[in-house]
Amino acid sequence: MNILGISAGFHDAAATVINKHGEILFAGHSERYSKIKNDLDVHVDLISDLANVGHIDHIAYYETPWKKQLRQLYSGQGIEWNKLTTHQVLKKQLQGYFSNVPVSTHSHHLSHAAAGFQTSEFNKATVVVIDAIGEWDTISIWGAHYVDGRAQYHRLWGQKYPHSIGLFYTAMTQAVGLKPMEDEYILMGMAAYGSKQASTIMKMQLVDDEWEATFKENLHIGSSYEWGKHFDDMDIASSAQSLCENLIYNVMRRAKDFGWSRNLVYMGGVALNCLANRNLGDYFEKIWIMPNPGDAGSSLGAAALAYGGKIKFEHAFLGREISGNYPVNALLDSLLVDKIVGVASGRAEFGPRALGNRSLLADPRGPDIKDRVNAIKRRQEFRPFAPIILEEHVNDYFDMPNGFPTSMYMQAVGVCRYPDQFPAIVHKDGTSRVQTVAPDCGSGIRELLEKWYVLTGCPMLLNTSLNIKGEPIVNDRADADRFEQKYNVKVHS
Ligand SMILES: [Fe+2]
Which residues of the chain have pLDDT under 70? Predict the structure, then answer.
C-alpha cells in the first residue's frame, strides 16, 4: 500500500510517497519542476515522477479546505467556491491523475506535527508548531507518543489567527521592502547588522500580550508602520528578530512547563529560523527539526498521519534523481584548481536547503572566496555562505549550541572559532549556519569531504545552493547545463 501526501494550493506545493513499511519512496517540491519559486501548484512533471514510483492506494491532503476558506472569508480575502472540498482541490492539482484513489483530509498543524514526530527518533515528545497560518491555527503544542505502534497527539495549547508569530515576521519582512512569504531568511541575515533600538516601540505598537503571543492588529492585512520610519532597515530586522525570539521562547517555556517530555519536535515555517533555534536547548534536552519543517514538508506529514506509525527517515535526498556515481574525483580536481565547483548528482534534497547533491561548493579558506562566490550567486554582499563539515570535526571549528551536538540539516547556528581563517562562512555576529555530515548521510558529499580533508587538512567546504538567480534549486541535468552556461562554472554529475 503506497500513500501519497499532497500539500498544495497556497505556496511551495510538494508531494511525498510512503510505502506500507513506512519507507519514503519519493518526496519532492513542485518548484524544482516548474522553475517558479514557491510554486503553489503541482507541476505535471512532478505528477509523472509520482506515477513512476508505483501504484498509489491512498491520497492524504495536508489541510482542511473548507476551514481555510472560512478563515479567508473572515479575513476579507473572499471565498473560492471551487476550493471548498479536498476533492475539488485535488481534481485541479492532480489534473485528473489518481482520480479513483481514496482520499483523507488532515489538519494543517497536525500535518506539521506528524511530519516532525513520526520522522523523529523519539517514542514520546513535546511537539511545537509555529507558522504563519494554517486553517486557523498559528501556534500549537502537542503531547505525542505511540500507542500500539500508532502515533497519538494530544493538543495541549494553541493560538489562532490573526495572532501569529509567523505573520509578524512576514510583515516585518515586507516592511523593509523584501518579498513576504519568501525572503524571511534575508531579514534574519540582516538582523546582525542592526541594533535592537526599534524593539521597544515595535513591541508597544504591535504586541498585545507577549506571553499569549497576541497582537494589536491583524498583521496579515498589513500595517502602516508609521512608527518604523525613524529606523533603518537593519534596525527593523534586528528588532524583529529579537522580538520574534522572545515570542518563540515564551512558547517553548510554556511547552516545557506541560512536563510531557524533555524531547522537542519543532515544526512550522518559523522553525527555519536557525538563529532563534540556537537557544532551544535552554528548554529541552533533545531536539528534532525535520529538514523540511514548512508547508512543503506537510506532504510527508499528511501521508504519515494516514500511515499512522513511525516513518523510516534516513536522510533528505528523496526527490528527482540524476543517475551515476557521485563525482568525487572530478569535484576534487576542480576544487584544487578553480576553488569553486558545482555538483548535481543523486536525488534532489527535500527541503529548502541544498545539502550536497545540488550544491555550489568552494574552498572556504582565504579572504577572497566570498566575493568570488557572490559574483556567481549575485546576492546581497552582507550574506555569508554556509559551511559543510565532517561531523567528527565540528567541535574543532565551531561552538555548537545546547541541543544541537550535530546539525545535519542546518537547523541551528554555531559560533566559528577561527573567523579570520574562514571569513566566507562566518556572519557578522560570528555565527555560521553549520551543516554536519555523518558517515551515513545518504550523499557522496561525505566521501568528497573525507578526501578533501586528506588532501588539504581542512575538513570543511563552503556550500550554497546550486540555482540560477531568481530560480529554485536545480532539479535535473538540463538545469545544471543552463547553470554552467550562464555562470561559466563547471557542474559535475
Ligand atoms: Fe504551515
Answer: 222-224
Q: How far is the CA of 292 from the centre of ligand 1 (A)?
A: 11
- 14 CA distance to ligand 1 centroid (A)? 13
pLDDT at 492: 98
Give how far Cα 454 sits from Cα of 434, 449, 459, Å.
21, 9, 8
For residue 165, how far is its CA from the centre of ligand 1 (angstroms)? 12
What is the whole-number distance in angstroms between the Cα of residue 114 and the centre of ligand 1?
12
Cα 382 to middle of ligand 1, angstroms: 29
Sheet containing 124-130, strands listed edge to edge, beginning at the edge strand earlier in sequence: 150-160, 137-147, 124-130, 263-267, 286-288
Enclosing H/E stretch for 144: strand 137-147
Q: How many CB atoms lie within 10 A of CB 151?
A: 20
Q: Is 250 exposed, middle or buried (0-12, 13-18, 19+ CB in 10 A)?
A: middle
Which helix or strand (DSSP H or E) is residue 342 part of? strand 340-344
pTM here is 0.97
Whether residue 63 contacts residue 106, with contact meaning beta carbons closer than 8 Å, is answered with yes
Q: How far is the CA of 10 from the centre of ligand 1 (A)?
A: 10
